[in-house]
Design brief:
Strand order of the largest sheet: 6-19-20-18-17-14-15-16
CATH topology of the largest domain: Rossmann fold
Number of helices: 9
Strand content: 25-35%
Oligomer: single chain
CATH architecture of the largest domain: 3-Layer(aba) Sandwich
Distance between the termini: 61 Å
Shape: globular
CATH superfamily of the largest domain: Vaccinia Virus protein VP39
Structural class: alpha/beta
Helix content: 10-25%
Number of domains: 3
CATH class of the largest domain: Alpha Beta
Largest sheet: 8 strands, mixed
Number of strands: 20
């Protein structure tokens, strides 16, 4: 039997989620291989052993794919930083691989066959796109990024996928002795930047605490880092507090607002449910679209995000922000009915109960935004099994050099229900 640490020669098969490819090991078990490409012959070292499968890193390429390139970052290979899964793949091939994975998930989980094209937003080289970065600090105070599936810190001087403004903000931060996490958040459109240190314990991680020195050579601080960051997207200004979710890609907010509005085709006077609404990225443009004769009900469980959303939509009196989890009871009692539903859940998806409750609102269209193809497919399947139709799906490459994408799917009700 093959064990951890063994070197094996493998012929690489289809791409799999999480930046891996599938191969068959010498003992017959499936091997999920990182740093490889379909069709390659590689020598790989086994990193994990499970009863039915193995994980391995390709250390030597015997027969390379024509899509293989030299990674821009020398720390992106085996044993290095775990943030980028696909730096060894050309950008065009990255999108081909991602399209294959998304199409497979939709077919296997949602039961639909749809052509998938991964759209490429700027920047064109796939670098300097990330506006938010979480850095790990080890016991010696060294700052870096986590290695793949590990708590070990890979010390890095510069991350190539982060926006230059992040590097500017990062250089101003001192963490003191670790372990801890340094979070840097920026908005290139406004020039705003903020950074803070989170403590290591799970109990303390949810609150912001002061660190020894906010800025090298600057004054000491005795108060938590709580100032919000001012953001700009789709013609609107947003206040977003530290810890409140915001899309990391520099172009993502504009692209997603445009995609959601195009998919929803909101009409003046309609009632819209904006679920998992965060700081109100979608609520503000949706409120403009429905006008004073309509209504937008934004549902979000985070009190801080809700406070931001109230601030960001204050000029539209027809927006209601509901501080509550997105749950069937909340949707029935606080939303009641909706012409349009927009939902942007976390990576795990909304779940079957919420999707059934969404259908019960009687919308003419549901627009689902997701950063995980499998979760999107599971949620869509609930409506598809009830006779709904997947009318379209856009896949945006908002995480270049990684295995992730963002999906915007449009679901329409059964033909007999589409009466509005």
């Amino acid at each position: 039997m093959t064990s951890v640490g063994d070197e094996v020669e493998l012929t690489i098969g289809d791409p799999a989620p999480r930046g891996e490819c599938v191969a068959r090991g010498p003992d017959g078990r499936v091997v999920f291989v990182r740093h490889a490409l379909p069709g390659e012959r590689v020598r790989a070292v086994v990193t994990e052993e499970h009863r039915s499968f193995l994980r391995a890193d390709a250390h030597q390429v015997v027969d390379p794919s024509p899509d293989r390139v030299v990674p821009p970052c020398p720390r992106a290979g085996p044993g290095g930083c775990g943030g980028c899964d696909l730096q060894h793949v050309s950008l065009s091939a990255q999108r081909t691989v991602k399209a294959s994975v998304v199409a497979t998930q939709l077919r296997r989980i949602a039961g639909v066959e749809v052509p998938v094209v991964v759209e490429a937003p700027p920047p064109s080289d796939g670098l300097e796109w990330r506006t938010r970065l979480r850095l790990a600090v080890d016991e010696d105070g060294r700052v870096g990024l986590r290695r793949h599936r590990s708590h070990e810190v890979e010390v890095v001087d510069r991350c190539l996928v982060v926006h230059p403004l992040v590097e500017v903000a990062r250089q101003s931060v001192e963490s003191g002795p670790g372990p801890a996490s340094v979070v840097v958040d920026t908005d290139p459109a406004t020039g705003a930047r903020v950074a803070w240190v989170e403590p290591p314990s799970a109990a303390d991680r949810a609150r912001l605490v002061p660190h020894r020195s906010a800025v090298r050579g600057g004054p000491k601080t005795d108060s938590p880092v709580t100032q919000p960051i001012e953001r700009s997207a789709a013609g609107h200004r947003y206040r977003v507090s530290p810890g409140v979710f915001w899309q990391a890609h520099v172009a993502a907010p504009d692209l997603l607002v445009g995609a959601v509005l195009e998919a929803a085709r909101v009409r003046p006077g309609e009632r819209v449910a904006d679920l998992y609404s965060g700081a109100g990225l979608f609520a503000a443009p949706l409120a403009e679209a429905v006008g004073p004769g309509g209504a937008v009900v934004a549902v979000e469980r985070s009190p801080t995000a809700c406070a931001d959303a109230v601030h960001n939509t204050v000029e539209w009196s027809w927006v209601t922000v509901v501080e509550a989890p997105v749950a069937p009871r909340v949707l029935a009692q606080r939303v009641g009915q909706a012409d349009v539903v927009v939902l942007d859940p976390s990576r795990k998806g909304a779940g079957a109960a919420v999707m059934r409750a969404v259908a019960a609102l009687g919308p003419r269209v549901v627009v689902s935004v997701s950063c995980d193809a499998a979760a999107f497919a599971r949620d869509a399947r609930v409506l598809l099994d009830a006779g709904w139709r997947l009318e379209g799906v856009r896949v945006l490459d908002l995480f270049p050099m990684t295995a992730h994408v963002e999906l915007v799917g449009v679901l329409g009700p059964p033909a007999g229900d589409a009466c509005r």
